[in-house]
User: Which sequence fits this backbone?
């Protein structure tokens, strides 16, 4: 088994020597992995991976090889039996506000709490918020509704539980990552096609015209000038901030820097929201109350000539999108998010959605909201290719 893992790591581009592999085997024989899969992960990474640029390659290989292994580190068999076959089936009711509070917990804190529960727990618990169990909003167990936690037993139906490798925290450290501020800026130049020529003297070099005239002149250089362009492009950038978008903060930061540094826009307006756009929106990515402005103000004061780019993963609890919705962690909004999105789409004929995340393969809630938003908006991947395709769409009316 370990030999196959060695060859998989090599196939994924990791330069691992036999001496390093034998060092890992020696460390395993000494018990340095503490007889746990998590310990084995960290031991392998520390011995075999030489640079942080290879961390993501290692995570990808680790996930592929150990994808069918569940978390069972030093867990009592009786507890595992409870989790696989709960006697009490949890209902559909749960405390959404309590579940959202779990998102602020650090991984180290959750691990500490988990070890404490294992010492305390003596019987089965389901549908609660404290013990290891099924359903409910506890950060331990399976089939629950907590945005963070450790999945134990069962099946991962809602991508709620973190696993060390599956977080892919080092995706942006890859040496072959080609997304940078400069490339985003180059892609954004496409919007210059919205600009118009000024009614002034011809003082700007016309490269295409110069090439054409030079060719027609038997190769003798014939320089052509044109009137300079007047920048008429106005852009409004709306960015999802916090929660699941934290995974893509570096990528979104790169896009923001490219847009902010670009000199191709006559005006740029940037606003922030959490999960979905509601009656209030923010001018600060930290979503502080003092940065709140009414979304109605934007609809009334920012004209329809603006090209609108929404950035978000389109994944949330369905009530946030379809019912009286939550915004800013628990404050109610009488108008559902889908209504505000519809108002934006109707006001601005040039509007696209950039998504840093793929469609959730696990289905359920997050796939549902993703599909609803994708149906109503022209959605593109937040990648170079996706941005280029999105900008092409911005240059034509729907």
Assistant:
């Amino acid at each position: 088994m370990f030999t196959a893992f060695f060859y998989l790591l090599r196939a994924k581009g990791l330069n691992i020597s036999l001496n390093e592999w034998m060092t890992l085997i020696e460390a395993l024989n000494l018990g340095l992995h503490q007889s746990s899969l998590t310990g084995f992960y960290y031991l392998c990474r520390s011995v075999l991976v030489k640079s942080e640029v290879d961390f993501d390659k290692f995570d990808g290989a680790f996930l592929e090889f150990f994808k069918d292994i569940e978390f069972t580190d030093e867990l009592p068999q009786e507890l595992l039996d409870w989790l696989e076959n709960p006697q009490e089936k949890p209902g559909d009711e749960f405390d959404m506000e309590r579940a959202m509070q779990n998102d602020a917990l650090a991984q180290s804190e959750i691990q500490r709490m988990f070890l404490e529960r294992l010492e305390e727990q003596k019987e089965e618990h389901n549908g609660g918020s404290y013990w290891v169990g099924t359903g409910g909003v506890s950060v331990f167990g399976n089939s629950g509704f907590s945005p963070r936690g450790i999945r134990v037993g069962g099946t991962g139906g809602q991508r709620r539980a973190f696993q060390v490798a599956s977080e892919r925290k080092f995706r942006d450290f890859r040496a072959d990552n080609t997304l940078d501020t400069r490339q985003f800026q180059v892609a954004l130049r496409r919007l210059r096609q919205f600009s118009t020529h000024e009614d002034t003297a011809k003082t700007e070099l016309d490269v295409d015209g110069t090439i054409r005239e030079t060719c027609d002149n038997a190769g003798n250089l014939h320089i052509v000038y044109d009137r300079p362009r007047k920048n008429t492009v106005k852009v409004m950038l709306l960015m999802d901030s916090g929660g699941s978008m934290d995974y893509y903060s570096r990528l979104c930061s790169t896009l923001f820097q490219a847009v902010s540094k670009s000199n191709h826009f006559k005006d740029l307006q940037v606003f922030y929201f959490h999960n979905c756009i509601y009656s209030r929106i923010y001018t600060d990515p930290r979503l502080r109350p003092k940065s709140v402005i009414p979304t109605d103000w934007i609809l009334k004061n920012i004209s329809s000539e603006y090209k609108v780019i929404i950035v978000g993963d389109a994944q949330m609890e369905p009530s946030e999108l379809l019912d009286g919705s939550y915004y800013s962690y628990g404050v109610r909004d009488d108008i559902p998010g889908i209504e505000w999105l519809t108002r934006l789409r109707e006001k601005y004929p040039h509007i696209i959605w950039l998504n840093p995340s793929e469609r959730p393969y696990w289905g359920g809630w997050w796939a549902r909201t993703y599909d609803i938003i994708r149906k109503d908006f022209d959605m593109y991947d937040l990648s170079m290719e996706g941005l280029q395709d999105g900008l092409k769409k911005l240059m034509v009316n729907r």
Remarks:
- Residues 70-74, 155-179 have pLDDT under 50 and may be disordered.
- Residues 107-120 form the longest helix (14 residues).
- The first strand starts at residue 133 and ends at 134.
